[in-house]
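Before the break, one more example. Copy the sequence into your notebook; we will annotate it together after we see the structure.
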Amino acid sequence: MCGIIGYIGKKKASELILSGLKKIEYRGYDSAGIAVMGKDGIKIIKGEGKLREIDEKKNFLALEGDIGIGHTRWATHGPPCERNAHPHTDAKGEVAIVHNGIIENFSKLKDELIQQGVKFETDTDTEVIAHLISKSISKSKDIEEGIREAILRLEGAYALGIIVKGVRKLFVARKNAPLVIGRGEGEMFFASDITALLEYTKKMILLEDGDFASLDEGGCTIYRIGDGQSVRREQIEVTWTAQMAQKEGHAHFMLKEIMQQPQALSAALSADVKDAVSLLKNSENLAIIGCGTSYYAALVFEYLMHKQGKGASSYIASEFNSWKIGNEDLIVAISQSGETADTLAALKDAKNKGAKIIVITNVMGSSITRVADVSIMIGVGPEIGVLATKSFLGQLAVLYKLAYTLSSNEKMLEKLFEAPAKVGEILRTSKENVQNLSDELVKLRDFFFISRGIGYPCALEGALKLKEVTYLHAESYPAGELKHGPISLLEENVAVFAIAPLGSTSAKMGGSIQECKARNAKVIVMSDDEALLKEGALTLRMPSVPEELVPLYYIVPLQMLSYFMAVKMQKDPDQPRNLAKSVTVE
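Here is what the structure looks like once it is written out:
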C-alpha cells in the first residue's frame, strides 16, 4: 500500500522524485524518504510524518544526483519512525531499496542473515531484501543476475525499486503489487501508480507479475524473474492529464472529487457492457466480490440481480474462499484501484477453478484486469483522495447499466441516464443545508445509519465515510435490526440517520424512526416523503427518484457531510490516519 518512484536521466532526481511522491502520498503517509546516487555514492534523507513535514525539516532537494528512488510508507512491519522509513540499505550503504508489499518469509531469511553476521537496524521486512541483494551481488559476476537470484528467494508480495552504488541503472521487480515504467526523452521512470508520472510522460509500460527490469536513460530491458528470459511488454499511451490529478481550486481532493461526480457519472455511463452482459446471460452461479466501498456496490448489484430473478451472492473478498460453495461459474469483481490484494487473491483462486471473471475498475492495465475475461473501466479519472467518492458512483453507474442492459429495461436505463444532471442538482441545492447540518452534528460522537432494502448499502457507505474521515463512532444496520440489540445504545446525543425514501419501505421506516425518537436519539431523516420529514429533528430533503436508484443519489449529501465535519474537526480529509488508497496487502 506504499508508494514508490524512481528516476534516471539528466535532471535533478530528488526534484522529480519529490514531485512524484506528492502525487501518490495517498498510498501511505506515515513516513517517507528519498535516496539519490551522486558523485559520493548513495545519500538518503528520510523521516517520520508526511512529505511536507519531512521536507521542511530536512530538505529533500539537498540530495544531488540524477539517479534516485523514493518511497512514502503505510506501515506494516515496525511502527512509523525514521529508523523504519524507506529507503533501506545494506550494511555498507551500497544497495538502496524501496518496497511496496509484504515479504512473507522475511523471518526465515532474517535468521539466516543474522547467522551470517548481518546486523539489522530496522524492524522492517524490506531491510532483509537489501542485505540479501548485497550478498547475492558479491557472489555473482553479473549485477543483474545477482539481483534476480536474490529476488527469487522472496515469498509474498513486492514492487521493488533498487539502486546499486556505481551502477548507472535502476532495477525493478513486481509480484502481486502494482508497478509501471514510464518512458521519457532520454530519461526513464518507475512508479507504483500512473499518476506519479503524468507530469513527465504519457508513455507507460505495465509490468506483469514475475517481471524484473533494468532501466537506463535509453530504455528498459524486461526479464522473467523465474528463468531470466527477456520478454516484451506493450507500451500504452495514457489519456489522463496531470491537471486531472490536481485540486483545481478546491481546498481538498475529496471535495473536488465529490463535486466532479456529474462528470464522473457521464463517463461511467458510457462504459461498454456488451461483453459482460453476454457472460451474465450464460452464467448460472454468480458471485460478486469487493472490499469496503466496493463491497457495498456489490450489495447493490446483488439486489438488482435478485429483482430480475437471477441468483447472486455477494462476498467480502477476504472472506470469499471461506464461504463460497465452489461451483461459481462467473465472478463479478469490483475494485477502484484494480490492485486490491484480497480481491485479486480471490479471483486467482476462482480462475484456477474455471470461473469466468468480469472486473469493474478505474485503472486500465491494473492487476485484476490481467486475470479478467472482461474488464469494464468506470473511467472517472484519477481519484487522489483516499476515500472513495466519485469512484463509488462510477461503480454504481456501471453496475446499474449492466443490470438494466441484461434485463432490457429501457425505462430504467432512461432514468439512469438522468443521473449526472440530478446529482449536479443535489450538489448545488444541498450544499448549504449539509454545511449547516455539519455544524449541529460535529458536537456529537456516536452515529447510526439505518435503512431498508436497497437503501441499506447506502447506509453502510454513509457510516463508512463518516468513520473513515472523522474517526467518530459510526455504524449501520438494516432498520429492522435495531430492535434486536443495537437499540440499547440509543440515548440523548446519539445521532441516527434514517435513509427513508418514499416507496415500498417508507411505512416500516416510519416505525423505526419512532423507535429511535422514543429513546431520545437525534434523528436525521433523509427523504422525499413529507410525512417522514416531519418526524426528523433534522432533515435532508431529497428529490424524488426511482427507489432502485436511491444509493446513487442519497450517498452524495452523506459524502459532503463527512467532508465538512472532518474539516470542522481539523482532520485531513484527503489523508485520514491509518488508511491507504490502494490496499495491496492481504
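The chain has three domains: 3-244, 247-417, 427-574. DSSP finds 19 helices and 25 strands in the chain. Try to locate both features in your own notes.
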